[in-house]
Design goal:
It is built from one helix and 36 strands. It is mainly beta. A hairpin with a 4-residue loop joins strand 21 and strand 22.
Length: 461
């Protein structure tokens, strides 16, 4: 009987780990870096609820002051090997905040160079490396004194760095240079540069067995695979418009990759075989960005940059099973296990400081133009962010709201036909729930032409 019971227990344990019944622990937490509200949202994955937010600064537009001292553009996240420290990178204030995960309190701040993007602890936890994307180096910080101890020279725009668990090598991608730097951790020297297909990579992640790194190329919609043994590119996958981050999960004994494709509002699931194959395309909320897997592989968490929250994906069924409202414009997302030592883990957190946004999808009247907009209430005023793609390069476009004779914004595209901007003003009618029923409330015209939906380049759905 004892033998049979043991066999049954093992079988049930395996089933539980790969089924929809599995639930993350109440001691675990999901974190998002919220760029517009300058908060870190803290979620309880066992209940799929927001516990509260760590307020690192004021939300926009309150930060627009030369005397402002809080953190601006809370953007990147990393963590220590023991999960006791959360790194928060704010690229507007050039800072690295060290947060005690047990208390949710900031225990130290380091200021680095222009526009840092992401940071991570070395495998032994003795150093923190922060990529200074607005310049050309990695800042090495002592996590005890919070002082910068040295700089590792790179090409322009390092985008992210991660460490092999054997402690020997670090892999750094770039956001401005089409190379990956392989760095000897002990000597802090670059030992090899690997050429890749695009200069813009915001994210990399190891496969669970650490045999490969996968890096995203946001600008061209691809993922590159690199062997950590041969230090060579092993493949490139076409993933889609605005490829942001990726994660891995083990499902039914197979390791799969989950890629957030922001421009399509989907997560794409690929095999990790030698020739990766697309298995599923899962619709999500607006502009999926950060993504991370729970330690037990039972859930995948997806930050919605324009949805201001997190969606919970069950990888066993490839279905979104929950939505958790959070901070504005979440960028990076991480999952940390066993961080709550007791109680509800809500110490030093504030209630949600923002409301839900309104998202508007744009469709072309003719041609292949793309675009989307998001409206957020900021209290006295609203913010209205518009992103336009695949338009004529170096050309001005006017954005109108229905009923307005004057444009609410005029954009000039870059050399790739892309434009993005945020307008702040009293556009209260756009932020009302009943505005969702209005027809053609957003019209994009080439040049200074007056609003005319029939002659527009883009209109809302």
């Amino acid at each position: 009987m004892k033998k049979n019971s043991t066999i049954l227990a093992i079988a049930m344990s395996a089933l539980f780990a790969n089924s929809v019944w599995a639930l993350p622990s109440t001691q675990d937490r999901v974190y998002t870096a919220d760029q517009n509200t300058n908060t870190v949202s803290v979620f309880n994955p066992s209940t799929n609820t927001l516990v509260g937010q760590i307020k690192l600064g004021n939300q926009r537009p309150d930060v627009l002051s030369p005397l402002y001292k809080g953190q601006i553009n809370v953007h990147g996240l990393g963590f220590s090997p023991d999960h006791k420290t959360l790194l928060v990178i704010s690229n507007g204030s050039n800072s690295v905040s060290f947060v005690d995960t047990a208390t949710n309190k900031v225990k130290g701040i380091t200021y680095v160079g222009r526009s840092p993007h992401e940071g991570f602890f070395t495998a032994d936890g003795k150093e923190v490396w922060v990529v200074v994307r607005g310049e050309d180096y990695i800042s090495v910080i002592d996590p005890v004194t919070y002082k910068e101890t040295r700089r590792i020279q790179t090409d322009l725009g390092p985008g992210m760095v991660q460490f092999h668990p054997d402690g020997k090598l670090a892999f750094a991608v770039s956001s401005f240079t089409p190379t990956v730097d392989i760095i000897d951790v002990k000597s802090h020297e670059i030992i090899k540069k690997i050429s890749v297909v695009s200069p813009f990579s915001p994210f990399l992640q190891f496969t669970p067995d650490y045999s490969e790194i996968w890096m995203t190329h946001k600008d061209v919609g691809k993922v590159t695979r690199i062997s950590t043994k041969t230090l060579e590119v092993t493949g490139v996958i076409d993933t889609g418009f605005i490829t942001n981050h990726l994660a891995f999960a083990k499902v039914n004994g197979k390791v799969l990759s989950y890629v957030t494709v922001g421009g399509e509002n989907v997560v794409k699931v690929f095999t990790t075989d030698k020739d990766a194959k697309l298995l599923a395309t899962i619709p999500t909320g607006a502009l999926p960005h950060g993504i991370w897997t729970s330690d037990d592989n039972s859930r995948v968490y997806i930050g919605l940059e324009n949805g201001d929250g997190v969606e919970v994906l069950d990888p066993a069924s490839n279905k979104i099973i929950a939505h958790m409202p959070g901070g504005q414009a979440p960028q990076a997302l991480v999952y940390l296990s066993h961080v709550v030592e007791g109680g509800d883990g809500a110490s030093n957190l504030v209630a949600r400081v923002n409301n839900d946004p309104i998202n508007i999808r744009l469709k072309p009247v003719v041609g292949e133009a793309k675009g989307f907009a998001v409206s957020r209430n900021l209290g006295v005023v609203d913010s209205f962010e518009v992103s336009l793609f695949k338009l004529k390069p170096e050309t001005e476009y006017s954005v109108y709201l229905s009923g307005h004779k004057s444009a609410v914004g005029i954009f000039k595209t870059d050399a790739k036909g892309v434009a993005n901007g945020t307008m702040i003003g009293p556009e209260r009618e756009l932020a009302k729930p009943d505005a969702l029923a209005a027809a053609s409330r957003l019209i994009v015209m080439e040049g200074a032409a007056p609003a005319d939906a029939s002659k527009a380049v883009l209109i809302d759905n």
